[in-house]
Write a sequence for this structure.
């Protein structure tokens, strides 16, 4: 057997072992060094970073939305309130599987596709650990289901928020407007810091116009949460600042009277304080319930509103544009006098029509057969003689009518504190050339002279014109809000027409008194006996044209083809305090349909505020010239 012992080399083996052991130890020390360096880096160098991340998981900053400012009428009646509503929200970072969480919630609650779609869009825009609303206005049953299943719904929050409620419902829908959920377009334009934690904003009406004042300032709180995201305690809190309350000039009682006076008719009523410009009533009917829009109206309900022929969403008082008809005659009467077109004693013969020289077309008077001979301006306003204004309007020309009409307020936005006001049209040569691309014709002037043709005005504009008539050329910009918080809103006076001589004002206002007092006055029967002095003017605006040789026959027309009925009025004449404009769509006659509405509103106003009828002896003496004669046409003739 071979002897291998002679082949061994103990020294070489010892060196090999030592080398291997040394290499192993070196590797171990290197690995230990790396471990110690990493430990030092994590525990020492990056301690603050990880401490901050841990606090973010444990301490959250939550936005506290402010309470929206309340809205009251002039007597302190609450018009827009806040009520608690519970919202289901999700903090995405607190849930391991969002899709599974939504599925679990879907087993408890029934969701609309629109709710889920909106949630998905908001999730993409959220900030870390920001709660995203999924369902608003949870019922008590839904809250109970979520509470019972809280243990398996990590990331779910149910929080209480204040949402709008309108106690008077549709009575003030067009005035107050409504709040609704912030949409995508609004999200891009809003300051995200101001709306932190808020999901609602003003959409229409005062809610939109005074959004900045009503919103308030957001607050914040630092809260400590557990691993499931539940709040354990509040560490620090900065309270939100509530929005400013609004007090209106509007009287909700008067608003109700206006609505009840309109009844089932479509139309609008505007009542202004002639001294301050405060809006006392602003009614548009039919209306709608703004509470339907606060948390989201159903598709069926919204379609019913938008498809209704009555157009309840349309604000007739602010955006409705109608031919003002004969309600323009007092203003145009002053225009032809002050421009020197005619004198106070100018009279015409009215055979029932008017013709331009060398023209066959007849412009008819509303009264078949006419009003006879020696018709003065007083007679023309009291009896609403169209032929007088055809004649004087043609003599004055459209340039004069446009100038004075604009100064009175036709075709000019009033500047009321509401959004989306319509401008109306006070036509001119330039207007027709620019809009219609055609020249101005004499027949256009004749139509405008009685508030027809191209001329359009809103009920609010007609009320402003009435207030200017009442105050002999002075007028204040109409305003709804009287106070914002503790600060009063200023009354803004507009350009006065003080250059018009007093004798012209006397004659025209005398004529308006005759409309309701004279035996021939077009509104005498409709207004009836009242305990104060009223000045007014009836108006009728054609909806469909009538051929030259045809007669207006209401029995052959559909309701929507009947004439509109209008009436303007102010009272008391000695010391005007209220001006009213009424439009009743397809109401046919301003005297029988619109005048009683204005009478009811003015009667109610003085019943609520009887002290406004108390005038001094000097005021009575100043106004006596307007009250004494029943038919002062002879005096007007002598003055001319």
């Amino acid at each position: 057997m071979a002897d291998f012992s002679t082949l061994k080399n103990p020294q070489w083996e010892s060196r090999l072992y030592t080398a291997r052991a040394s290499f192993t130890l070196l590797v171990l020390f290197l690995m230990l060094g790396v471990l110690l360096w990493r430990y030092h880096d994590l525990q020492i160098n990056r301690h603050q970073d990880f401490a901050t991340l841990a606090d973010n998981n444990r301490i959250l900053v939550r936005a506290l939305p402010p309470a929206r400012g309340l809205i009251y009428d002039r007597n302190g009646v609450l018009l827009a309130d806040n009520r608690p509503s519970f919202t289901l929200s999700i903090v995405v970072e607190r849930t391991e599987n969002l899709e599974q969480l939504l599925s679990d919630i879907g087993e408890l609650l029934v969701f609309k596709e629109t709710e889920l779609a909106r949630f998905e869009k908001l999730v993409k825009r959220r900030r870390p650990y920001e709660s995203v609303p999924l369902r608003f206005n949870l019922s008590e049953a839904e809250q109970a289901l979520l509470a019972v299943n809280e243990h398996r719904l990590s990331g779910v929050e149910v929080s209480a928020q204040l949402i709008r409620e309108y106690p008077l419902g549709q009575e003030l829908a067009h005035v107050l407007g409504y709040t609704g959920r912030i949409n995508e377009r609004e999200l891009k334009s809003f300051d995200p810091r101001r709306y932190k934690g808020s999901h609602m904003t003003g959409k229409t009406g005062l809610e939109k116009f005074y959004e900045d004042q009503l919103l308030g300032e957001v607050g914040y709180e630092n809260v400590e949460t557990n691993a499931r995201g539940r709040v354990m305690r509040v560490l620090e809190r900065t309270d939100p600042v509530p929005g400013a309350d609004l007090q209106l000039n509007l009287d909700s009682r008067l608003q109700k009277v206006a609505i009840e006076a309109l009844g089932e008719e479509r139309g609008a009523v505007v009542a202004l304080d002639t001294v301050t410009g405060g809006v006392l009533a602003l009614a548009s009917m039919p209306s709608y319930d703004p509470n339907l829009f606060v948390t989201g109206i159903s598709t069926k309900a919204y379609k019913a509103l938008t498809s209704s022929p009555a157009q309840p969403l349309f604000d007739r008082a602010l955006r409705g544009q109608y031919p003002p008809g004969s309600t323009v005659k007092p203003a145009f009467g002053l225009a032809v006098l002050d421009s020197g077109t005619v004198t106070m004693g100018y009279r015409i013969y009215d055979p029932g029509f008017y013709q331009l020289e060398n023209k066959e077309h007849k412009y008819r008077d509303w009264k078949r057969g006419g009003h006879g001979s020696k018709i003065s301006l007083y007679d023309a306003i009291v009896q609403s003689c169209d032929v007088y204004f055809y004649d004087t309007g043609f003599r004055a020309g459209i340039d004069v009518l446009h100038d004075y009409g604009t100064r009175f307020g036709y075709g000019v936005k009033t500047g009321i504190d509401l959004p989306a006001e319509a401008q109306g049209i006070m036509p001119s040569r330039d207007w027709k050339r620019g809009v219609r691309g055609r020249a101005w014709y004499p027949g256009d002037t004749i139509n405008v002279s009685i508030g027809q043709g191209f001329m359009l005005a809103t009920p609010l504009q007609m009320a402003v014109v009435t207030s200017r008539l009442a105050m002999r050329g002075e007028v204040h910009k109409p305003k709804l809000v009287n106070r914002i918080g503790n600060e009063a809103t200023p009354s803004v006076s507009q350009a006065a027409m003080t250059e018009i001589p007093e004798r012209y004002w006397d004659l025209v206002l005398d004529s308006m008194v005759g409309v309701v007092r004279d035996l021939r006055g077009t509104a005498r029967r409709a207004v009836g006996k009242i305990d104060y002095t009223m000045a007014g003017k009836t108006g009728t605006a054609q909806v469909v044209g009538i051929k030259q040789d045809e007669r207006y026959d209401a029995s052959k027309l559909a309701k929507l083809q009947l004439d509109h009925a209008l009436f303007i009025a102010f009272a008391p004449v000695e010391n005007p305090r209220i001006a009213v404009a009424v439009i009743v769509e397809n109401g046919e006659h301003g005297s029988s349909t619109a005048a009683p509405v204005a009478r009811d509103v003015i009667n109610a106003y003085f019943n609520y505020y009887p002290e406004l009828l108390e005038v001094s002896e000097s005021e009575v003496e100043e106004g006596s010239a307007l009250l004494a004669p029943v038919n002062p046409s002879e005096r007007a003739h002598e003055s001319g």
Summary: DSSP finds 25 helices and 23 strands in the chain. The two ends are 162 Å apart (CA to CA). The first strand starts at residue 59 and ends at 64.
